[in-house]
Design brief:
By secondary structure, the protein is of the alpha/beta class. It folds into two domains: 69 residues, Winged helix-like DNA-binding domain superfamily/Winged helix DNA-binding domain (Arc Repressor Mutant, subunit A, Orthogonal Bundle), CATH 1.10.10.10; 194 residues, Rossmann fold. It has seven helices and twelve strands. The strands form four sheets. A six-stranded mixed beta sheet has the order 6-5-9-10-11-12, with helices on both faces. Strands 1-2 form a two-stranded antiparallel sheet. A two-stranded antiparallel ribbon has the order 3-4. It is globular, with a radius of gyration of 21 Å. It starts with 5 loop residues before the first helix and ends in a 5-residue tail after the last strand.
Length: 272
């Protein structure tokens, strides 16, 4: 049992809540931890709730009853989201990012912890009410985004492989058509990696026609899983046929002039 002044107790409780998102925490846990009455703990949580909402950190949901408690739901308000994405889009629009084929170089962004955390929180906010049980992505660039998102949803990550690994045991493999190149490719997932009938959120870094995401959706059917959402960091606008209908994007790539090194990019469907 910790004997702390109220100010220290508020800090300690806040840190605990931030470290355990989407987890129902009984009031008795805090009451016993600090040797305080539940009424005092409730007052503390009201203060934290107000601070979270005013600062755009998230919300605290109270669940009544004997088995109730409080749950921290990470959320980002529109103002903070647009401000962050405006800065990110400015970085993405730099001429030196243009790669052959109209792609953008994004490895530095996908390797920056603070940026990844913010992107993960945006995706977690968008799908906070979907009862996500697993975050899925395909190797390799989508992996850091998936882990960043899963951290705020407090769920595991499942990685779809493009080739089989002996260390993963038996796998389920399917062939899918790459949306941009129309090539037949293969993806696989270990049978032990995903419980059947899981509720899955798909996260990826870049989407053209959506062939890879479509492949993951088809692969999930083999596990009788439910796709509760799909989030991509950047989508391209110049696609004649999209293989995925329901998804959100944080940014939309409208035009890439390879010769002039000009990139036109705007906010994605997340903000619409």
């Amino acid at each position: 049992m910790k004997k702390l002044r109220r100010s220290a107790r508020l800090v300690d409780m806040t840190q605990y809540l931030l470290a355990h998102p989407h987890t129902l925490i009984p009031l008795t846990l805090f009451s016993e931890e600090y040797g305080s009455a539940k009424s005092s703990i409730s007052e503390d949580l009201s203060i934290i709730k107000e601070a979270f909402e005013s600062q755009g950190v998230g919300v605290l949901k109270t669940v009544a009853g004997a088995a109730g408690g409080v749950k921290y739901i990470p959320q980002v308000n529109q103002e903070h989201s647009k401000s962050f994405m405006a800065t990110l889009i400015e970085q993405l629009a730099k001429p030196e990012r243009v790669l052959p084929g109209g792609y953008l170089y994004m490895s530095d962004i996908l390797g920056h912890p603070t940026t990844l955390a913010q992107i993960g929180k945006l995706f977690a906010s968008a799908f906070a009410d979907q009862d996500v049980e697993v975050v899925m992505t395909v190797e390799t660039k989508g992996i850091p985004l998936a882990y960043a998102t899963a951290a705020y949803l407090n769920v595991p990550v499942v990685i779809v492989r493009r080739d089989n690994k002996v260390t993963e045991g038996s796998v389920v493999s399917i062939n899918y058509v790459s949306g941009s190149s129309k090539r037949i490719q293969t993806m696989s997932l270990a049978r032990r990696a995903l419980p059947e009938q899981s509720r899955v959120l798909i996260v990826d870094d870049f989407m053209k026609a959506g062939g890879t995401v479509r492949g993951m959706i088809d692969l999930l059917q083999e596990f009788r899983a439910t796709v509760v959402g799909c989030g991509v960091m950047v989508e391209t606008a110049d696609v004649s046929e999209r293989l995925v209908d329901e998804y959100i994007s944080l940014a939309k790539l409208n035009e890439v002039d390879i010769k002039e090194k000009h990139i036109q990019i705007e906010l994605g469907s997340y903000f619409q």
